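Q: Fold this one first, please.
A: Sequence and structure below.
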Amino acid sequence: MKVLYVYRDLLLGGVTIQLANRREELDKHVTTHYAFTKDHKGRSAFKNPEGIFITETPGELAGLIRENNYDAVVIIDTPAAFEALDQAEFKGKVILEVHGTSHRIEYLDEVPPERYEAVLTPSSYVKSYLEERFRISEEKVKIVPNCVNTELFRPFNTDEDVPDEPVIMWIGKLDLHKNWPLFLDFCTRLLAERDDVRFYMAGGETASDRVVNEFLDVLSRKRLTEKVTWISRAEQKWMPHLYNQVGKSGGFTVSTSKNESFGMTMIESLACKTPVLFPAVGAIPSILTGELAEMQYEPENIEEMTAKALQFLDHKERTLKLAEAGFEQTLASYKPETVVRTYLDMFTQVVR
């Protein structure tokens, strides 16, 4: 079976990384190609660069489809792909993947259900949203969780460069969805309680000059420039080292997102046995269950967020136990072999 995945942006973001995480295991069973409409230097996410194409127009994408005789085309938040399918007179199966609930999926209002066989999504939260918002039938929406590359994201020794203060790391684009202003407010609040902590912010390379200038201005006004290290390009290959460095320092990974359809950075962090502190939004409560729920806080509640951060820092033994429990759950549920097995079972049922 030969499958083409179509997505807008080849960048080091969640969707690209998820495609790369699945690819090595998927390619043991099917041939996969990937078409992106814009190149934002995200090719390094893929171990194997073959079969990755930049098709900037529907015509270019249609040509690729005609040349390769795909059995299925999987479209991810890229409505222009439907024009390409029409131009190519594609007769195979069309499947949608929906990784989030942002405005980028509003195109689904214009796509009749008969144009696709199924919709794949990473969580019960997104499944429910699609069924309620777009009236997609329950039978068409299938849940396949994201997976994490456990060969890359794993605990390892970083003793030679562990900071002498606990490090709290925030990861994401510099946008209001990821809510970077709240994180800087949190930094200020936590430093008022104890000053023996440092902060990393990883991501933001694609932000506009206006947003970057605003971010740097807020950083300066809050007098955080000596405490916050900004790593604008969060290369996938560097992230395991950062997660382990943070965990070994006695710190943890934190999120201030307004919504999370899955929480990939949370799973990556736990795969490295580094604790997390995430808002109870979107899919997070369905993943951080049982004792792992201690690693959640009420969304945008900076008082609870700060209090839990202090608990993590003050009660290290308990925090390490939570990280261990999260690590075990991640290995059991989100390894590529486990997820791809589920993915292929569902995929073959739809395509055959």
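Q: Good. Now the second chain.
A: Here it is, same layout.
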Amino acid sequence: MPAQSLRQFLNQAGVGYLVIQHPPAATAAEVAELTRIPGRCFAKTVVLSLDRELLLMVLPVMRQVPLEALASALDATPRLATEAEFRGSFPDCDLGAMPPFGGLFGLRTLCSDELAEQERIAFNAGSATEVMVLDWDDYARLARPELLELGP
């Protein structure tokens, strides 16, 4: 089942979404492959640490986290957060399956502008065995991510 907080949030907003079940996978790229969702539409959510603050970075599954481009865009140097740093920050989510809605967890959400070019966005739904698919416009309106141009 998708994370309870996410499901309630989307239902209260009256947003339609699709939930896709899949076998457990180690990476978001594997999930995209298992669910046959194109990598350009499948968003992975990465937890970053920036000046002792946790934030979410959302980017297409086929992209590496561009720390140098982020440092330039943010005028600060982020790094990948350790599991110990974010353990407990996503109480109703399986580890590594955080949805790209930082606001649900009191976190800032950064997002690659590449995802904004897609009609729909797919992402881990807080469960290691479920993906949600949502219209990009609904995601952008509800998550209010800060779009960043991260280059090639």
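Q: Anything worth noting on the second one?
A: Strands lie at 18-21, 42-50, 53-60, 79-80, 108-112, 120-124, 130-135, 146-148.
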